[in-house]
Amino acid sequence: FTIVPDVIDPEEIARLVPQLQSFIDSDLGHADPRRLKDEWRVFNPHLRSPDFLDLITRPSVMAHVESILGDTCILYACISSSMPPGGPNYSARVHVDSPRIIPGYPTNVGVILCLDDFTAENGATSIIPGSFEELERPSDRDFEARAEVIFPTAGSLVVFNGRTWHSGGINRTHRPRHAVTANYCRSYMRQYFDFPRMIPPEEAEALTESQRRILGFHVRMPTSLEEYYVDEADRLSRAGQG
After folding, report:
1. What is the pLDDT of residue 137?
2. What is the side-by-side strand order in the sheet with 108-114?
3. Is 104 helix (H, G, I), strand (E, B) or coil?
4. How would you list the strands of the sheet with 126-127, edge to edge?
5. Is 89 exposed, middle or buried (0-12, 13-18, 19+ CB in 10 A)?
6. For position 29, what pLDDT does the model report?
7. Which residue in 70, 91, 160, 81 sits closest to 113, CA to CA?
8. Is the pTM higher than 0.70?
9. Residue partners of 166: CB distance under 8 A and separation at least 6
10. 26, exposed or middle or buried, with CB in 10 Å at 0-12, 13-18, 19+?
11. Could you say which residues of the chain have pLDDT below 70?
12. How far is CA 67 from CA 64, 71, 85, 106, 144, in A?
């Protein structure tokens, strides 16, 4: 893993944190009981606010991802990594964010966008360096013996192979610890959500070309022969996408 400091400035953090907390608050207590396990887990904040879309597609973030996956990679998933006050959440288990292993060939890169300082008191992440080709989940004792607790400051990025074994801690403070994790994958892989289909056409028109590529607009599948037999510029699946 790598910690890259000072990627998000304090003024931006001051805008992002209230938005993220409002998404969490609106999702808490959802009527569908199947969503209880995902409390404090906000899916797709980049579809709920253009500020988060800008955050996960900006060049200062993508440069680190593309140095590993190349410049045709796309967004696999984007989920909040906030830790609730007074306890742990779903992340406080030893896990990986991407299950597949191809030796010597990373398929997914994770980026934790830290909106608060990570401390021993508020549930800092623990990670086993170099564990991305270990198939078996380490035991809790093994994980504790080998893992490093990382303490990135607010505004930092944590860049890691998505197959690396890691765990969130326990927040023993009285305030949330906010972060967002974006996961990027190779262009030929399926995304966690069908982002091009989820974005209204009028909003898609306003996206930059780079944002369209990262969100998967250049690697869509045609749904009919009419969509397939079109001019090259209008094709849903563009050439040269890896």
Report:
1. 95
2. 2-4, 157-161, 108-114, 179-185, 74-80
3. coil
4. 148-149, 126-127, 166-167
5. buried
6. 76
7. 81
8. yes
9. 94, 95, 96, 125, 126, 127, 128, 147, 160
10. exposed
11. none
12. 5, 8, 36, 11, 31
Structure tokens at 3: 């910690």
Which residue has 């990670």 as its token pair?
A: 127
Nearest to 123 by CA among 91, 96, 98, 148: 91
Q: What is the DSSP track for 72-87? A: T-EEEEEEE--B-TTB
CA pair distance 68, 65, nearest whole angstrom? 6
Type of residue at 116: D
- Residue 109 pLDDT: 98
What are the angstrom distances between the C-alpha of 136 and each of 95, 96, 118, 144? Answer: 10, 11, 28, 15
Instruction: Report CA-CA distances (Å) from 239 to 68, 112, 219.
Output: 21, 31, 9
Residues 147, 151, 154, 158: what is their CA dihedral angle, to the nearest 10 degrees?
-40
